[in-house]
């Protein structure tokens, strides 16, 4: 069981001693019980921090924001690192970012939090459980989540309202960390990894297409999936259809010869191309934090696409995203024994 | 850059194309392209008048790029590029659309063939729209070579290069050159004395005006690329001035320190100050810093006192120099597979079980026993000797998957040499099969079996251990299916050849790849066997793969020839179709660096930088980059995008 | 025209609307959305994920197509929206109030032929909110009401087993007369119940923007407030808040090309979004709205200041979508309140 | 205004001139109506030009309203659409819709001294004003033009400027000294200070890079120009040109409708969003 | 496409310059007939084929996409085809996953000496594509 006091204490201490430039964590937002990202720079703000089942955001995204901000201002990080609260999946994202030289290990201070026996909630599942009742607080309690509502305390077995990614998570513990809270329950399994994917894959090709066609049709190309993903840190996405002066170095020629792989129209064909390209670009990089899936306002099951890539990578290439900072990248490496039977 | 003025020249190729492709229609369709300013058909574009009209049309119509739709680019790309140049436009703005081999010859249906020919032509027109005029990349060349490793491979390569009038720096890690060959007794298949062949070459190296010898030295860092490498060499201190040392041996007489002699593979010992071999080059003693009592006259200083030549200098310091060379030959040789990895063969801990090199020293006239075969444990002459081949080789499950290639031969040699020394001794050889491809090799083995009465047992040894002053060898003879047990006086393991430690280190330093077994990887297994993947770095000897001396010498000669060919040019010229980074889009993720088979990309200040001298233009980087931040010139993603569009229009 | 319609006869009404394509909320993948209806309709929805703005302002609108043969002048072919009239059922009062706001935008200064062509072809059948459909509803504080009829053509009020049906416009009357015999005249009791239901609806507690009337002036005074950056720190710059907003109208115009020889393509309008980082970026890279703070300010001030200054009403109609759907908890109520409060 | 404001009319490129070459190339185009008439415009207004298949870009109309047969545009090659323009040849057909935006209140300025201060490609938006004033030379008192480029090769309308010299005071400047340059050397705001034009009965009109405008205005204030005497134009990204696409606004005002011409007295009080 | 004409699958074939393109030349020299449905795009190496190209070809209306290069171990650039094999495997799996017919994407190794094989690969591919009919899943809607 993680004691929130310890997290707050750590944050306060680091800020007071100047050991961290900022602490990125979670705090209670203005809309009910849901946590929201918190950016602390003063020790006295440490008491705002929370740790509960609504802390679903992958805060490593804000390390990316921070780095972009610094780059824009022409500064280098210098001095103290940014401290960040990271779950298992989030910490893996941080590892991938470092693997891709996005920042250095010493630029980040990882305050790991173990998801222990459970994980975070899926708002959609929770909504059906609460049935219109508003909750004002959420808490971990062993295998249950406990919600405070106007109608009193509501205890729900965590697995009933947990996000799929947490149910299927095989390493709910931030291996890479400077400091970690909570027990390492790696190896615990609530559902088989890729359970949701397997269920989906069990359908025939025709059914799969029918499902995806409907999903792709719904996409409104709000790009929340891309914006919320720490791995989607490119200054200009290849699927952007507009020319985008990335830096002052970008020449008129480069802007003029921007490739329009897809159109801006939210049509099915374009949405597919966008989402499939995104999945390809995340192959071996997505750490299954599930944020894209969560953020999508129209419930496109984006996670399945990324999961599919993850599963293939694991099973065919023995590849695990975010496993180590110095490790190879999936698509820039190969093994002699990679599958080749599909080739004629 | 304003819009291109492209000319399209549609060749009939007699009826080769015209019979199944409506050439007039192809020309008509192409003239509808935005950038096409001129089209022409002709019966034989590659004929003299055809070529003339291409040149003339370029001039007359102020064309800046052309597409010739004809046969395979392998045939006439050069022809028409030359024409382009002759007409005053850049040859890289000429492209070929292959509508013969890939179209007219393989499709009989004229309508469909024409449609496909149009698509092919259109896609090439779109491609040419974005072709940049380019000049071949020119790099000036430093006319000096470096050879790393002073075994027979390095020695041969250095001599060949030096004899061509090119300066060579030969860098050897040990105190003497000579490598493994210096440790051998006599060599198959001729059984001539190894040192007798080698020593003159070593002396020649030492005397050669074009060779600078740097022993006791190691390469620490390499920068630059083909034609212009800058190599940092670190020379350890030997504390003895080779020019003054008279090799009088007085120093060793007084040195109180005794350590095992690595050159004799631990069969004997030496002092802290020593000479590896009598024939060492440079001919000088060396003071082993680690063994010496302290390089300090107060603590010891005995050797310095007795050295009349005043050659010993305790204050000598290591030096690091930077050498500029245009090409590098890597000849860092091999080691033997560690017996400690093979518990089934005693794990290196059973007495009187030797490896091949130890046996070489044992029978060498210059070795510890002055050529008498005496087993180490009790210095008695062994009467039953078991030779075990493939010790560690050809065993993918537990050890090395590959065949070490020379063990069959040297085991046969060992058996014969043994029988020569101990005519009443019995020699047994365990083998899997005999691989004796090579001039005179098979005859050599046969003679060992027949004339020298060696018992060849086909099978593996499952176990050996010491029993009553002997080594019990348990194996099977797969030919008879019988279990075999031999109580041997001595066992010799033909251990697998592995890349030497120095080879593994140098591969890292030079960033040249290694194959799956750890040997240095050649650029192409068939076509470029002596080149590394990195331009200007060549491979020779056992560092690249297990091989014997003749093969080593042949490869060294080939590497030298490559170096000579390279360095005889004043400048290098390379294809300009290489990768280019869009710096503003590169995030420095390093994936391209990882993907590039030619190690042509590095990260600098958070951006990918392509080494123009190394890039081969394969495009692996561009297909890997998630940000389309790296492209191969004239085959850019934009061009492919538009070609795809053209193919589907 | 005021009538009573028994709930079970709603489907008959829909069936009687032969000249119309009828749309009503339907649940797909856990999402309420307007869908063309052939069978029975449901009006027990919360609010739809997407507002009904698409009926007049679809995400993709083709302006015209063009064709150009080399050496000839291009031929343009105007594409005007056409098709059957639409009747959209189940529009919530807040979304209804979005309609006149969009009308203003698309007719101020210059008339937008495409919008108007679609607009005159659609009739909105609203449904009063007896109870706020979302925890983030705040229509009352922005001048609306759960029983508002603004922008609607017909208003339905749920009276248990019947609907109180009220025609607001001529178009609404047409809808009702199309199936005149299904309707009964309301009794006094019906009228009374309507009043009660409406009163209860208005009395239902809601979240609120504190001083909506002061907002324009206070926001104006707060243009340079450091609060913007602080409040927008978590914003990821996605398109959710705007794409789902019933009154957001920003768009982009692009040429989509299919063949190049001859050139053939179309000019297309697609939704765009002031929260995308490149929205206002010049080709030079200069961006008048650099950073999430400036962009959040634009969104909030557009809703609560600029629109007010131009048209005398708030553009935000309090549907709460942007609050509920924001993946990182940016809450327009909180933002406005905070900035206004801070302006002193 | 036409029924469908988004439907462009067609115009033929009648003339192309390389104004500036290099990385920041500028070309000048004359566009003639393909058939029939032309819309009229006032000094300072813009038009949405399109190359079909590539898209639209808002460009200032650089010719005087007095010129009837064609409209002039000077386009800098910066991106997708502008590059497409640079690829065009005489005879090619483009789309055009407009005119958009407000204009310079030239009628209020008759009888006054006019001081034009331009930098880089910022000469295009004020060029119709300069040429109109020169055509109606008698209506105005002293006309002074300050104009600077980074190098002498970046000076646009060079020949035309030289031709003006008789009736107008022209001061050209470049940022860094070059051989053979006899004009001022230094930034435009300094060039203005160097000549200190009098604010007496004068209107100053400035256009150029935002940073230049900022210093020009500071300097004009120093010289005694009042905010009402200073005019400038601003360019925010635009897609529709009619106040709907939502990006060019500065506070409540859509620049495509209320702008692009502003007096400093107005602009000063608008939020800094340009 | 008019109704009378039989359906002809459109294929984009990415051929590496050293092996498959040379192999197709050999098919030509040997006059081996095969269907005209595949339009070749020559690339330096299969390693240069970005998955984006595959997506884009389908998006632009290809009924099938072929990527063909040197056999493993024969790559002119040593490792390009190893890298390609992995990338193409992934994109193939992804296409399959969303329900695109397996037979729409194909990869083959055709060496410079395998003219007959090249012809066979195309013939088989066209044969496998024909029953699938036009690809409209990823295809951008046509402008009328
Ligand atoms: C037991 C045995 C018997 C054999 N008998 C025969 C025979 O009879 N006939 C025959 O033809 N072949 C025989 N061989 C094979 C023969 O020894 C090899 O073919 C030959 O020695 C290979 O030469 P080389 O120069 O490639 O390598 P090596 O002889 O290993 O020389 C490599 C040299 O490079 C130096 N070096 C290593 N790393 C570095 C570094 N990083 N920097 C600088 N210097 C470095 C080493 O010190 C060494 O001097 C036998 C081999 C064995 C094991
Ligand atoms: C009122 C006004 C007058 C202008 N006058 C001129 C002029 O006379 N000469 C000149 O060279 N330029 C002028 N510009 C700037 C010109 O509009 C942009 O340089 C041009 O739109 C860039 O388009 P692009 O497609 O080449 O660049 P890209 O970078 O490829 O453009 C990307 C996208 O953003 C849009 N975009 C980018 N910047 C702008 C912008 N500033 N305004 C509108 N849309 C933009 C483009 O339309 C395109 O869709 C003016 C701009 C405005 C607002
Ligand atoms: S998948 Fe969902 S989150 Fe992503 S762009 Fe589409 S609608 Fe937005
Ligand atoms: S793709 Fe989705 S699940 Fe994967 S890292 Fe990005 S946001 Fe997380
Ligand atoms: S893969 Fe692309 S972004 Fe990454 S370092 Fe290479 S060029 Fe840069
Ligand atoms: S084109 Fe090939 S050789 Fe050149 S940098 Fe890219 S991956 Fe390396
Ligand atoms: S406020 Fe929220 S919904 Fe809007 S852009 Fe920012 S993150 Fe996306
Ligand atoms: S701003 Fe938010 S609450 Fe207001 S109308 Fe738009 S989506 Fe609804």
In short:
The complex is a heteropentamer of chains A (344), B (649), C (344), D (274) and E (144). With 649 residues, chain B is an alpha/beta fold. Chain B is 28% helix and 26% strand.
Regarding CATH, which class of the largest domain in chain B?
A: Alpha Beta
Report the portion of residues of chain B in β strands. 25-35%
Shape of chain C: flat
| CATH topology label of the largest domain in chain B | FAD/NAD(P)-binding domain
* Helicity level of chain B: 25-40%
Residue stretches of chain C low in confidence (pLDDT < 50, at least 5 long) are none
**Structural domains of chain B: how many:** 5
Spatial sequence of strands, sheet with the most strands of chain C: 1-9-8-7-6-2-3
Can you lay out the helices and strands and say which pair or pack?
The complex is a heteropentamer of chains A (344), B (649), C (344), D (274) and E (144).
Chain A: H1 4-16, E1 22-28, E2 35-40, H2 60-72, E3 82-86, H3 88-99, E4 108-113, H4 123-130, E5 135-141, E6 144-149, E7 152-157, H5 158-161, H6 164-167, E8 179-181, H7 195-201, H8 205-218, H9 224-227, H10 252-256, H11 268-282, H12 291-295, H13 302-317
Parallel strand pairs in A: 1-3, 3-4, 4-8
Antiparallel strand pairs in A: 1-2, 5-6, 6-7
Chain B: E1 6-11, H1 23-31, E2 36-42, H2 48-60, E3 65-70, H3 73-86, E4 94-98, H4 100-104, H5 110-129, E5 137-140, E6 144-148, H6 152-163, E7 167-171, E8 186-187, E9 192-193, H7 194-207, E10 211-214, E11 217-225, E12 228-235, H8 250-254, E13 258-260, E14 269-271, E15 273-274, E16 286-287, H9 302-306, E17 319-325, E18 327-330, E19 334-336, E20 353-355, H10 356-363, E21 384-391, H11 407-421, E22 426-431, H12 441-450, E23 455-458, E24 461-467, E25 470-477, E26 482-488, E27 490-495, E28 497-499, H13 501-510, E29 522-524, E30 528-532, E31 537-539, H14 549-567, E32 571-574, E33 579-581, H15 591-595, E34 601-604, E35 607-610, H16 620-624, E36 630-632, H17 637-648
Parallel strand pairs in B: 1-2, 1-3, 3-4, 6-7, 6-18, 7-10, 18-31, 20-27, 21-22, 21-27, 22-23
Antiparallel strand pairs in B: 5-32, 8-9, 11-12, 12-17, 13-14, 15-16, 19-28, 24-25, 25-26, 29-30, 33-36, 34-35
Chain E: E1 11-16, H1 20-29, E2 38-43, H2 51-59, E3 64-69, H3 80-98, E4 105-109, H4 115-129
The structure holds flavin-adenine dinucleotide (2 copies) and iron/sulfur cluster (SF4) (6 copies).
């Amino acid at each position: 069981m993680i004691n929130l006091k310890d997290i707050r204490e750590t944050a306060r201490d680091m800020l007071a001693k100047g050991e961290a430039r900022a602490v990125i964590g979670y705090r209670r937002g203005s809309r009910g019980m849901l946590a929201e990202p918190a950016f602390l720079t003063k020790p006295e703000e440490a008491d705002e921090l929370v740790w509960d089942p609504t802390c679903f955001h992958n805060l490593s995204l804000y390390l990316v924001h921070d780095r972009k901000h610094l780059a824009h201002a022409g500064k280098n990080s210098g001095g103290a690192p940014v401290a960040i609260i990271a779950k298992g999946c989030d910490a893996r994202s941080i590892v991938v970012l470092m693997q891709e030289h996005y920042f250095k290990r010493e630029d980040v201070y990882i305050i790991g939090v173990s998801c222990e026996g459970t994980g975070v909630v899926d708002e959609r599942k929770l909504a059906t459980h609460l049935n219109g009742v508003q909750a004002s607080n959420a808490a971990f309690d062993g295998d249950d989540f406990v919600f405070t509502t106007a109608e009193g305390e509501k205890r729900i077995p965590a697995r009933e309202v947990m996000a799929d990614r947490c149910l299927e998570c095989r390493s709910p513990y931030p291996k890479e960390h400077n400091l970690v809270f909570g027990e390492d329950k790696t190896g615990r399994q609530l559902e088989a990894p890729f359970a949701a994917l397997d269920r989906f894959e069990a359908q025939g090709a025709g059914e799969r297409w029918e499902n995806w066609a409907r999903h792709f049709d719904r996409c409104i190309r709000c790009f929340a999936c891309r914006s919320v993903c720490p791995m989607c840190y490119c200054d200009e996405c290849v699927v952007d259809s507009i020319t985008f002066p990335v830096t002052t170095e970008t020449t008129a020629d480069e802007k003029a010869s921007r490739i329009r792989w897809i159109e801006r129209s939210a049509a099915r064909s374009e949405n597919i191309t966008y989402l499939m390209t995104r999945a390809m670009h995340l192959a071996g990089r997505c750490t299954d934090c599930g944020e894209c899936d969560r953020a999508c306002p129209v419930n496109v099951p984006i996670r399945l696409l990324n999961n599919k890539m993850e599963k293939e990578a694991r099973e065919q290439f023995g590849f695990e995203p975010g496993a180590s900072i110095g490790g190879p990248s999936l698509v820039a490496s190969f093994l002699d024994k990679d599958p080749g039977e599909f080739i004629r | 850059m304003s819009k291109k003025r492209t000319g399209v020249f549609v060749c009939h190729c007699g009826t080769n194309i015209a019979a199944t492709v409506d050439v007039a229609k192809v020309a008509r369709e192409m003239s509808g392209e935005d950038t096409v300013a001129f089209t022409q058909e002709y019966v034989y574009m590659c004929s003299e008048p055809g070529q003339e009209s291409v040149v003339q049309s370029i001039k007359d119509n102020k064309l800046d790029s052309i597409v010739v739709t004809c046969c395979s680019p392998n045939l006439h790309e050069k022809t028409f590029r030359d024409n382009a140049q002759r007409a005053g436009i850049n040859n890289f703005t000429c492209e070929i659309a292959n509508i013969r081999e890939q179209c007219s010859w393989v499709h009989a249906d004229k309508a469909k063939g024409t449609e496909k020919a149009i698509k092919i032509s259109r896609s090439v027109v779109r491609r040419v729209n974005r072709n940049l005029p380019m000049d071949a990349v020119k790099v000036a060349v430093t006319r000096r070579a470096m050879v790393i490793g002073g075994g027979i491979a390095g020695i041969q390569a250095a001599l060949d290069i030096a004899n061509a009038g090119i300066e060579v720096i030969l860098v050897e890690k040990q105190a003497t050159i000579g490598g493994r060959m210096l440790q051998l007794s006599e060599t198959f298949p001729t059984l001539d004395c190894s040192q007798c062949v080698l020593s003159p070459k070593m002396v020649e190296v030492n005397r050669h005006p074009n060779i600078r010898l740097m022993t006791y030295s190691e390469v620490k860092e390499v920068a630059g690329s083909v034609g212009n490498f800058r190599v940092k060499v670190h020379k350890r201190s030997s504390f003895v001035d080779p020019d003054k040392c008279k090799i009088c041996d007085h120093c060793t007489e007084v040195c109180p320190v005794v350590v095992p002699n690595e050159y004799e593979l631990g069969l004997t010992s030496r002092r802290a100050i020593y000479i590896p071999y009598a024939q060492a080059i440079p001919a000088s003693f060396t003071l082993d810093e680690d063994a010496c009592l302290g390089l300090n006259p107060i603590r010891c200083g005995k050797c310095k006192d007795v050295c009349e030549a005043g050659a010993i200098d305790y204050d000598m310091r290591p030096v690091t120099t930077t050498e500029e060379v245009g090409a590098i030959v890597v000849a860092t040789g091999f080691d033997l597979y560690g017996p400690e990895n093979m518990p089934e063969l005693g794990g290196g801990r059973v007495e009187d079980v030797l490896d091949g090199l130890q046996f070489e020293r044992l029978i060498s006239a210059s070795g510890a026993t002055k050529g008498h075969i005496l087993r180490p444990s009790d210095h008695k002459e062994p009467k039953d000797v078991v030779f075990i081949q493939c010790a560690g080789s050809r065993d993918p499950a537990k050890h090395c998957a590959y065949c070490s290639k020379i063990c069959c031969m040297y085991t046969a040699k060992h058996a014969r040499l043994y029988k020569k020394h101990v005519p009443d001794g019995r020699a047994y050889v365990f083998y899997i099969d005999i691989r004796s491809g090579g001039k005179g090799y098979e005859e050599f083995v046969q003679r060992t079996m027949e004339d020298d009465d060696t018992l060849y047992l086909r099978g593996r040894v499952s176990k050996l251990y010491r029993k009553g002053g002997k080594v019990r060898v348990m194996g099977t003879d797969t030919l008879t299916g019988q279990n075999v047990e031999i109580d041997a006086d001595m066992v010799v393991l033909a251990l697998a050849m592995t890349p030497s430690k120095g080879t593994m280190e140098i591969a890292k330093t030079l960033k040249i790849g290694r194959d799956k077994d750890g040997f240095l990887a050649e650029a192409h297994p068939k076509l470029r066997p002596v080149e590394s993947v990195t331009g200007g770095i060549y491979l020779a000897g056992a560092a690249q793969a297990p091989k014997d001396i003749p093969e080593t010498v042949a490869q060294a000669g080939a590497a030298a020839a490559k170096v000579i060919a390279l360095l005889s040019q004043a400048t290098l010229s390379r294809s300009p179709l290489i990768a280019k980074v869009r710096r503003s889009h590169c995030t420095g993720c390093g994936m391209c660096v990882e993907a590039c088979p030619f190690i042509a990309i590095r990260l600098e200040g958070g951006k990918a930088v392509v080494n123009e001298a190394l890039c081969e233009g394969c495009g692996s980087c561009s297909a890997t980059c998630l940000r389309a931040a790296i492209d191969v010139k004239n085959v850019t993603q934009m061009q492919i995008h538009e070609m795809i569009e053209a193919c589907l229009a | 025209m005021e009538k009573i319609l028994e709930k079970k006869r709603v489907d008959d009404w829909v069936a009687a609307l032969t000249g119309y394509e009828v749309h009503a909320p339907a649940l797909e993948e856990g999402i309420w959305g307007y869908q063309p209806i052939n069978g029975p309709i449901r009006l027990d929805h919360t609010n739809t994920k997407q507002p009904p703005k698409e009926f007049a302002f679809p995400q993709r609108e083709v302006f015209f197509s063009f064709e150009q043969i080399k050496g000839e002048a291009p031929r343009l072919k105007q594409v005007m929206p056409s098709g059957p009239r639409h009747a959209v059922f189940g529009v919530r009062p807040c979304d209804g109030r979005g309609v006149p706001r969009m009308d203003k935008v698309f007719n101020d200064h210059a008339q937008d032929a495409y919008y108007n062509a679609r607009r005159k072809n659609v009739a909105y059948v609203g449904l009063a909110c007896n109870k706020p459909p979302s925890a983030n509803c705040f229509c009352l504080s922005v001048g609306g009401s759960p029983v508002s009829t603004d922008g609607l053509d017909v208003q339905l009020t749920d009276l248990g087993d019947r609907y109180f049906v009220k025609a607001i416009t001529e178009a609404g009357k047409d809808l009702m007369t199309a199936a005149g015999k299904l309707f009964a005249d309301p009794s006094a009791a019906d009228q009374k119940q309507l009043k009660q239901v409406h009163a209860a609806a208005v009395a239902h507690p809601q979240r609120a923007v504190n001083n909506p009337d002061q907002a324009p002036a206070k926001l104006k005074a707060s243009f340079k407030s450091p609060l913007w950056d602080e409040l927008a720190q978590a914003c990821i710059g996605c398109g959710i808040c705007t794409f789902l907003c019933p009154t957001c109208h920003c768009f982009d115009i692009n040429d989509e090309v299919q063949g190049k020889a001859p050139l053939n393509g179309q000019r297309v309008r697609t939704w765009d979004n002031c929260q995308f980082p490149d929205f206002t970026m010049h080709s030079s890279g200069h961006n008048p709205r650099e950073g999430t703070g400036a962009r959040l300010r634009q969104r909030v001030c557009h809703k609560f200041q600029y629109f007010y200054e131009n048209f005398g009403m708030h553009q935000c109609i309090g549907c709460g979508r942007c609050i509920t759907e924001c993946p990182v908890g940016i809450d327009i109520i909180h933002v406005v309140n905070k900035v206004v409060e801070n302006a002193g | 205004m036409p029924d469908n404001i988004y439907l462009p009319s067609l115009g033929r490129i009648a003339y192309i001139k390389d104004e500036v070459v290099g990385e920041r190339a500028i070309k000048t185009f004359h566009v003639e109506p393909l058939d029939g008439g032309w819309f009229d415009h006032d000094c300072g207004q813009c038009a949405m030009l399109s190359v079909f298949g590539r898209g639209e870009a808002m460009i200032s109309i650089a010719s005087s309203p007095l010129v009837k047969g064609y409209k002039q545009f000077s386009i800098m090659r910066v991106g997708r659409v502008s590059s497409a323009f640079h690829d065009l040849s005489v005879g090619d057909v483009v789309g055009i819709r407009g005119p958009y935006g407000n204009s310079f209140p030239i009628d209020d300025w008759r009888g006054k001294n006019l001081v034009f201060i331009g930098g880089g490609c910022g000469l295009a938006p004020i060029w119709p004003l300069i040429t109109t004033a020169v055509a109606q030379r008698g209506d105005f008192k002293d006309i002074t033009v300050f104009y600077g480029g980074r190098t002498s090769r970046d000076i646009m309308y060079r020949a035309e400027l030289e031709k003006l010299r008789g009736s107008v005071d022209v001061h050209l400047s470049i940022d860094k000294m070059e051989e053979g340059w006899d004009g001022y050397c230094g930034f435009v705001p300094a060039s203005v200070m160097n000549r200190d034009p009098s604010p007496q009965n004068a209107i100053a009109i400035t256009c150029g890079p935002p940073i230049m405008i900022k210093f020009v205005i500071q300097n004009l204030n120093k010289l005694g120009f009042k905010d009402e005497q200073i005019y400038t134009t601003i360019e925010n990204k635009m897609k529709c040109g009619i106040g709907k696409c939502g990006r060019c606004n500065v506070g409540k005002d859509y620049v495509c409708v209320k702008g692009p011409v502003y007096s400093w007295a107005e602009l000063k009080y608008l939020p800094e969003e340009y | 496409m008019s109704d009378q004409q039989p359906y002809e699958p459109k294929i984009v074939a990415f051929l590496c310059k050293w092996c498959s393109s040379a192999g197709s030349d050999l098919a030509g020299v040997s006059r081996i007939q095969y269907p005209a449905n595949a339009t070749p795009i020559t690339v330096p190496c299969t390693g240069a084929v970005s998955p984006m190209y595959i997506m884009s070809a389908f998006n632009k209306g290809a009924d099938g996409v072929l990527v063909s290069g040197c056999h493993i171990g024969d790559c002119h650039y040593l490792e390009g085809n190893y890298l390609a094999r992995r990338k193409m495997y992934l994109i193939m799996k992804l296409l399959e996953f969303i329900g695109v017919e397996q037979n729409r994407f194909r990869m083959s190794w055709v060496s410079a000496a395998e003219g007959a094989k090249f012809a066979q690969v195309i013939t088989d591919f066209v044969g496998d594509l024909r029953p699938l009919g036009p690809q409209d899943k990823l295809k951008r809607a046509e402008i009328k």
